[in-house]
Amino acid sequence: MKYFTKNRLAFLVPTLACGVACMLLRFVMMVYGFDQKGLLVSGHISMFLCWAIAGAFLLGLFFGVKHIKGTGSFDQLFPASFFCGGIVVLAGAAVAVLSLGRHSLLELVLGIAAGVCMMVTGIFRIRGKQPHFGFHFVICIYFIASLIMSYRHWSIDPQLQDYAFQMLASVMLMLAAFYRASADANAIDRRKLVFTCLAACFFCIVSISDPDVPIYYAACGLWAVGSVGMLEPVEDTAA
User: Which residues of 45-59 are buried (b: 16+ CB within 10 A; e: fewer)?
Assistant: First the structure.
């Protein structure tokens, strides 16, 4: 239990702290960083600090996951957990409900399907059971489609800082869902799963500063941190 606490703190506290710090800095940037024409003031300190913290976090996470020992089996990496499973169920419910307000039929169907799949996998995690990889595959398809559809709107915005963190969050969510589906199929890449899940959580926290979709990114951040699996060293199982 002592080592469990140490590893959890080493990964989750920096993710939360850096995410909240960047979120607050982005709030400051969005309020005070623009001139009368609506353009970002060149070299604004909040933007510089935000990207500096983001870069330092990703660099630290990149080297941090290299110290995760053992590949482990699915049962070792995803034991029964009411907390992790519960927040995934909560995230899935939020995604499904938010999808009801979509104007596109494709977004509506994919959003509800992904939300239901999140809730199902959350229940599996609560029970300590291994879900079929198809559930997370559907979630991955949803994040891919969401990224493509969102980019149609982002691409007409000349201000990269308006959507950069949301775009990075979408990319990491897509990759996290892919590696989670691979884990369900017993093709586990533990370090990439941890990196993408925690990076997705970080970018989702920062993206809560977006006034249009804060609940969506909060829900996706919960899904990411609930899907990361064990962060403690495990013994490799025999082939």
Answer: ebbebbeebbeebbe
